[in-house]
Every structure is written in structure tokens, then in C-alpha cells.
From TrEMBL:
Enzyme Commission identifier(s): 1.1.1.130
Molecular functions (GO terms): 3-dehydro-L-gulonate 2-dehydrogenase activity
InterPro entries hit by this protein: Mal/L-sulf/L-lact_DH-like_ah, Mal/L-sulf/L-lact_DH-like_NADP, Mal/L-sulfo/L-lacto_DH-like_sf, Malate/L-lactate_DH-like
NCBIfam families the record matches: PRK13260.1
Taxonomic lineage from the root: Bacteria, Pseudomonadati, Bacteroidota, Cytophagia, Cytophagales
Pfam short name (any one): Ldh_2
Sequence intervals crossing the membrane: none
Gene3D superfamilies attached to this UniProt entry: 1.10.1530.10, Hypothetical oxidoreductase yiak, domain 2
Keywords, ordered alphabetically: Oxidoreductase
Name under which the protein is recorded: 3-dehydro-L-gulonate 2-dehydrogenase
Length: 336
């Protein structure tokens, strides 16, 4: 697959112009395009512009509504419930994390449960959003059924991504992970490139482990992280997201032809308001220093979650963001 190197301003501006043409208000188009472009800027290609065409198709099928914004449903102290009204998932998520951070500035902790929203694209975006404001960020979402319960033949679980982000002066620690061993975006990229996964990625039609991403995509049979433990964690995330928001569960989402109407939760904690400053930075530094001090296997290196992101961001700002030639051509064609 041939890549082009696109400067960040050009990528952002192009995506924004497509969104305006699609019916977005200019401010919403700016922020939505920025979230897509920053995803590729940080090297998370499976959840950035590669998904832009699908995002447009959902708009055209009236599964995503560009002009809708979240509406407050209820409030109790540091906890709020919002209805995403099937608006753009990344904008809804950005708004929800902003609101959770505002609540944490008042109370030390803020929690926003969001019902009836859409795919948030790169979940890590909202973890970085939190740490850039000095907050701890935790968020999770349910999805369509795309992972089997342990020992089950059919998918009844979502791969339900979880994000945990810790601010740190010398580099934030940002974990962004699905409950499947490989995210479906990663599997799609591997399949398009004709490559196998580096570890078993899921099950084939006979319930046997396979490294073939196309087989896993066909059967929606991703392997849970930690085997039965990952399956259990996926179930708990679905329960929390649906119960706290009052929105759809994985099974509800699976009853529709396309993935829409998701439930999500966003939590922010402010170390300053919580009185953690006396030890927060020193303790975080000690933990990461010890972690990185582990002897690596021959030819390997030890990294903490998010460590490579800032390096990738700097490189892509200097050299341009890699975008598949065919994908870029499709985006440009949207402006004709």
C-alpha cells in the first residue's frame, strides 16, 4: 500500500472542507477534522482517516447527524448523564470529557455518562485531552457484538475499549486498549495489506485460534485479551456503560444493521483539587523509572503506554503524515 506524506495543516483543512460540504457547521467541522487528523499525526492509522469514508457513509445513511449536540438528562453532584442524540461520536466524546474535567475542577472528580452516541474513533484522544489539562482521564465505551464470550460460538460481547491516562511532566502515560487482543481497525489494516497478525487474533469457524485477520473479521470472533479474563472485563464495561448512561447495551446495539447508539463513560480526576500534588509527580516518576529499568529481551525495548506518541507526533509534523494513496484520493474526490 503506497503512502503519501501530507502536511498536518493540509490534512486538517481538507477534512474540514469535506465536513462542511457534508453539512457540518464550521466550528464543528474544524474540531471533528482536527480529531481525525491528530489521530494520524500520532500514528494511530487504524482509527484516523482510514475510517473517514465510513464516517461519511454513516452520515449519509442517517446514523450520524452532524447538527446534533449532547443534551443534559440529569445531574447529581459530580455525576451527569447526557444524551448524545446520535451526533458525531468524536465530538460527543470530546464534549463529554470537557464536561467531566470541568466537574473535576469543582469537585476533584467528574463523571459523565453518555447515551445514544456514535463511534468515538480513537479513544486515546480523550485520554490525551485530559492529561494535557493536568487531569487523570478514564473513559470506556461499548460497541457492537464482535467478540465471543469465553467458550461461546457466537459474538455476544463488544471489544469495548478502555482508556486510562495519567499526567506526568516528562511524558504522560496513556493506555488505549480494546478488550480484544487486536482492535478491529488494526485487523482491517492487516487484512488490507495481506498480512497475518503477530499473535493469535481470534477464532475461525471451527473455534480454533487463527492469526488470519480476514477470518476474524468475517466471523466477528476476536480473541479476548487475557482469554476468559478479558471476556469478563468486556462484560463489566458494557454493564457499567449501559447502566450509568441509561443507554444501549452491546446486545441492543447488535440488533441494528449498523453500529450506532453506543453508551460511554468519561471520568476525570484533578490531582490539585484532590490534594495529591505533594507526591504525585515524584511517585509517578519513580514507578515509570523502575518500569523502564527492566532488562529487555535481545533486540527488544521496554516502553510505557503512550511513550512513542510524542516522538511520532514530532516526526510527522516535520516530515508529513503518512496517508495511503488510495485513501487520500477518495478524500480529495469528496470535494469534486
Amino acid at each position: 500500500m503506497t503512502d503519501l506524506l501530507i502536511p498536518f495543516p493540509e490534512l486538517h483543512d481538507t477534512l474540514m472542507r469535506v465536513l462542511v460540504k457534508e453539512g457540518f457547521a464550521e466550528d464543528a467541522a474544524f474540531r471533528c477534522a482536527e480529531l481525525f487528523a491528530k489521530t494520524d499525526l500520532d500514528g494511530v492509522r487504524s482509527h484516523g482517516v482510514e475510517r473517514f469514508g465510513r464516517f461519511l457513509s454513516y452520515i449519509r445513511q442517517e446514523m450520524v447527524f452532524p447538527d446534533r449536540k449532547p443534551v443534559l438528562l440529569s445531574k447529581s453532584g459530580f455525576f451527569e448523564r447526557w444524551d448524545g442524540q446520535l451526533g458525531p461520536g468524536n465530538l460527543n466524546a470530546q464534549n463529554a470529557m470537557n464536561r467531566a474535567m470541568a466537574l473535576s475542577s469543582e469537585n476533584g472528580i467528574g463523571c459523565v455518562a453518555l447515551a445514544f452516541t456514535n463511534h468515538w474513533m480513537r479513544g486515546g484522544s480523550y485520554g490525551w485531552q485530559a492529561v494535557e489539562q493536568g487531569k487523570i482521564g478514564i473513559c470506556f465505551t461499548n460497541t457492537m457484538p464482535n467478540m465471543p464470550a469465553w467458550d461461546a460460538k457466537e459474538p455476544r460481547l463488544g471489544n469495548n475499549p478502555l482508556v486510562i491516562a495519567i499526567p506526568r511532566a516528562s511524558g504522560p502515560v496513556v493506555l488505549d486498549m480494546a478488550m480484544s487482543q487486536f482492535a478491529y481497525g488494526k485487523l482491517s489494516r492487516l487484512a488490507a495489506a495481506g498480512e497475518k497478525a503477530s499473535f493469535p487474533a481470534g477464532f475461525d469457524g471451527q473455534g480454533k485460534l487463527t492469526q488470519d485477520p480476514s477470518t476474524v473479521l468475517q466471523h466477528q470472533s476476536a480473541l479476548p485479551i487475557g482469554l476468559w479474563k478479558g471476556a469478563g472485563l468486556s462484560l463489566m464495561i458494557d454493564l457499567l456503560a449501559a447502566l450509568l448512561s441509561g443507554g444501549n447495551s452491546v446486545s441492543d446495539i447488535g440488533s441494528k444493521p449498523l453500529e450506532s447508539g453506543l453508551s460511554q463513560v468519561f471520568i476525570a480526576l484533578d490531582p490539585k483539587v484532590l490534594g495529591l500534588e505533594a507526591w504525585f509527580e515524584e511517585k509517578a516518576e519513580a514507578i515509570i523509572t523502575d518500569y523502564l529499568g527492566a532488562e529487555a529481551l535481545d533486540g527488544r525495548s521496554v516502553f510505557y503506554p503512550g511513550q512513542q506518541t510524542l516522538r511520532t507526533r514530532k516526526k510527522n509534523l516535520e516530515l508529513g503524515i503518512p496517508v495511503a494513496k488510495d485513501t487520500w484520493a477518495q478524500i480529495i474526490n469528496e470535494l469534486k
